[in-house]
Amino acid sequence: MFVGLLVANPHLLALGAMCLVAIMLMILEAKGMLAQISVTRQHQPRAFQGQAVPVRLMVSCKGARSPELLLIEDYFPPASNSRFRKLVEYPLHANRLVEMDYYGPCDHRRGMYILGPVRLQAKDSLGFFSREVIIDEFSELLVYPQAVDLNEAELLGEGILAHVGLETTRRTGHSEEFLGVREYRAGDPTRLVHWKLSARHAKLIVKEFQEEMTTLVSFFIDLGKLSLVGVGDQTSVEYSIKCCASLAKHAVERGHSVQLFSISESVEHISAGAGIAHLLAMLDRLAVMRPQGDAAFSIRVMDLASTLPRGSTAILLFGAANAELESLSRAISIFVDRHILPIVVLIDDRTFIKVYREQEESHFKAPPLEKVAQHLMLMGARVHVVRRNKSMEQALLQGLEREGAA
After folding, report:
1. Average pLDDT over residues 375-403
2. DSSP 78
3. Dihedral over alpha carbons 79, 286, 395, 249 (to 10 degrees)
4. DSSP letter string over 117-142?
């Protein structure tokens, strides 16, 4: 057309116009064919960190014409390499279904992820021009914190009293249901002595009561703002949550009932339950929990200690530098008095990068980790220390399978 204008040749002008129209038609053809394509995505709704999720995209064309060299690209944000592509080399005929299958690794941290959108790119019939469209096909994937296998660990054991944690049992104790009397044995508390019968038989007789033993394991996790130390996946909170997930899985597999108290600016309670369905409910919440507000963790635990049933197990998860020994000592004393087994999981948070300015001062003033662990053990708690490691799974296994500060 330009040459035709220069030389005033109508034939060249007409040829140029025809070429321009052909180009426009090819561009519109590619765009129009993409508008006739629909996409749906299928995958499981939940996954664990490190797990590869099978995803299937189903692509179909409703139009009479099909695009050439169709490129399908899906966005999978839990993966480090989040783009997955497939080239459809043959024409996508009307009502024909094309499936794109891939495995998306959940490399990033726990949480709720939105998969999508889907990008489609196609060329015209001659392969000169390409067009692309973005299809708003979205779906949700909840990524659970990684739960390590603790089958070799005897962390829960059988509790303080025989068979605690394995089944509901009946044992002589101090409940209100009277069982009978027997002769005094060394170590029996004097408040149980039946003085009238003792005087009648000229020997000490004590009263026996029935004590209900439960399989309940209660988790207390510190989610206050200052409990967050570190960046990315290497944070004290991530360590605490993964410990909690691992122990909850371990407890449910051994037949325990479990409940969760997450303590931040308020206390969120997941009531007691057993079985896989209840474990999934706990993991649903652990996957999206975030630290916030002033937790006052030790005080909250002390207030809640008296609400737990006798003979159960309490597991406390928190950073060592945030330990308030006075309040924790009171809480553990309540646990021990009620025959509740206290297990403390200390996260060695001093080795993480500080996030808030207040943490510098509080960590500097805090007692050494070994002193905290020894103090809590002297109070009657079983203590496990989890230290930072490049492999968080290895750090959890080392800390949860070995008791003490060493």
Report:
1. 88
2. T
3. -110
4. -EEEEEE-TTSS-EEEEEE---EEEE
pLDDT at 254: 84
pLDDT(67) > 80: no
Full-model pTM: 0.74
> Phi and psi dihedrals of 386, rounded to 5?
-110, 120
Q: Do both 280 and 134 map to the same domain?
A: no
- Measure the N-to-C terminal CA separation of the chain; round to a whole number of Å: 85
Instruction: Evaluate whether residue 305 is within a structural domain.
Output: yes
If asked whether residues 108 and 219 sit together in one domain, one would say no
Dihedral over Cα of 170, 175, 181, 183: its sign: positive
Looking at the DSSP bridge assignments, the partners of residue 257 are: 216
Mean pLDDT of 241-268: 91
- 193 has which bridge partners? 206
> Domain for residue 166, yes or no?
no
Helices 392-401 and 236-253 cross at an angle (nearest 10°) of 60
Give the count of beta carbons closer than 10 Å to the beta carbon of residue 120. Answer: 22
Kind of pairing, strands 46-48 and 83-88? unpaired
* Residue-range definition of the domain harbouring residue 196: 171-212
One domain for residues 190 and 324: no
67's tokens: 């695009």
What are the backbone angles phi and psi of residue 161, rounded to the nearest 5°?
-105, 155
* Distance of alpha carbon 19 from alpha carbon 226, whole angstroms: 68
Total Cβ atoms within 10 A of residue 277: 9
Under 8 Å between Cβ of 342 and 381: yes
Output DSSP code: residue 191: G
Tally: H helices and E strands in the chain:
10, 20
Q: What is the pLDDT of residue 200?
A: 87
**Antiparallel, parallel or unpaired: β 230-231 and 234-235:** antiparallel
Express each pLDDT in 123-168 by its tens digit: 655 556 677 888 899 999 999 998 888 876 666 654 333 333 333 3
Please state, in angstroms and as integers, the Cα–Cα distance from residue 128 to each residue in 24, 125, 131, 260, 392, following that order: 11, 8, 10, 61, 51
Confidence band, pLDDT 50/70/90 cuts, at residue 52? very high
252 and 360 part of one domain? yes
If you average pLDDT over residues 358-369, what whole number do you get?
Answer: 78
Q: Residues 357, 359, 364, 368: what is their CA dihedral angle, to the nearest 10 degrees?
A: -170
* Strand order, beta sheet including 313-319: 267-273, 257-263, 216-222, 313-319, 341-347, 382-386
